[in-house]
Amino acid sequence: MLVTRNLAAQLISRLKKSPAIAILGPRQVGKTTLAKSLSNDYIYMDMENPRDIAKLHDAYTFLEGLQDHTVIIDEVQLLPTLFSLLRPLIDAKRTPARFILLGSGSPELVKGVSETLAGRISYNELCPIGLTELPDELSFEQHWFRGGFPESLLSENDFQSKEWINDFIVSYVERDLAKMFNVDLAPTLLRNFWSMLAHLNGNLFNGESFARSLGVSAPTVNRYLDFLEGGFLIRRLQPWFVNAKKRLVKSPKTYIRDTGILHRLLNIPSYSDLFGHPGIGASWEGYVVEQIYQIKEKQTDLFFYRTQRGAECDLVLVQGITPLACIEIKLSNAPTVSQGFINCTKDLEPKYKYIITPKSETYVTSNDVTVVNLKNFLMNILPQIQ
């Protein structure tokens, strides 16, 4: 089943101008497939393949001889010395599309790009397949339950999808994260922590509480959270501070970014069982946040807003220092507007106010809040208001 990625057109455009681009994202998200589709004349190298690593014994000479091709280097963060070599190679022949670097989300990769290759590279994030990229053969329900990783989403049935995600989780816990960041991690601790994050999906993050439950220090918990975030597996949604006169919540909320992984960590066997699970509301909220993140413009930032008195706005779209839109996320297709949400909009005074639902029609309430389903919001409203 062919899936056209939204990022492809942007990457093609950037390759026409930039000598190098970086595509960052979690493992198994489709970076290699996408990169190979961008050029008809490429040399592919995988930094997990000993044969390819051996070719780079004299890396400068080897890569210099490929200057007329596009060189795709996969898992480039595993060989960080390459960054210092790429700079003189690019400066010697600054033609577009010389290098496509693929990395599994390591912060060290971004740091290397920004420091060593500043002005020479464009870097981009490839997320799991989003709702606006969904093939006609797949339903919104399948996407929400299975998540967006291609091997899971495009499986023949839910059983195969669950088996793939189970293997993916084990691989990340036992091998991938430690190798990605070149650190020692305790697999049991990491798995327990990831599972706890799933059960508290969408809640305020309290490192001390996690530390007590896991029997480790708070710095250890924060370190593991950094690794999961660096691997594009969890999202920290920061609170928006705008009114110094009010007492505001200052802790971030954490979400498992892919709902397929979330549902496996929660051991939810089917889409119908999701509706009997206490975590369904948080699952829907995280799903909406992630889908909006995937297609928002770069100048738009995402926050939440909550006062100490309990008034909350699930999502605030901000440009610069100006709240653009306040969004409440509701699982009901016939939602009511909460007083807490109205109070938040009075504090923030956004230009737009929305309640996002799974499948409701679009209409405006008496409070001047637009109720809209997620797909309509992503495809028709969000591109117009940014």
How are the elements arranged and paired?
Blueprint: H1 7-15, E1 20-24, H2 31-37, E2 42-46, H3 50-55, H4 59-64, E3 70-74, H5 82-92, E4 99-103, H6 107-116, E5 121-125, H7 140-146, H8 150-153, H9 158-181, H10 187-199, H11 207-214, H12 218-230, E6 234-237, E7 253-256, H13 259-265, H14 271-274, H15 280-295, E8 300-306, E9 312-319, E10 322-329, H16 339-348, E11 352-357, E12 363-364, E13 370-373, H17 374-385
Describe the protein in words.
This protein has 386 residues and is α/β, with parallel strands linked by helices. It has 3 domains: 7-125, P-loop containing nucleotide triphosphate hydrolases (Rossmann fold, 3-Layer(aba) Sandwich), CATH 3.40.50; 135-236 and 254-277, no CATH class; 296-386, Trna Endonuclease, Chain: A, domain 1 (3-Layer(aba) Sandwich). 43% of the residues lie in helices and 18% in strands. It is built from 17 helices and 13 strands. It has helices spanning 7-15, 31-37, 50-55, 59-64, 82-92, 107-116, 140-146, 150-153, 158-181, 187-199, 207-214, 218-230, 259-265, 271-274, 280-295, 339-348, 374-385, and strands spanning 20-24, 42-46, 70-74, 99-103, 121-125, 234-237, 253-256, 300-306, 312-319, 322-329, 352-357, 363-364, 370-373. It has a 6-stranded mixed β-sheet, sandwiched between helices. A 5-stranded parallel β-sheet has the order 2-3-4-1-5, sandwiched between helices. The protein has a two-stranded antiparallel sheet with strand order 6-7.
Helical element count?
A: 17
Count of folded domains: 3
**Secondary structure category:** alpha/beta
End-to-end gap:
32 Å
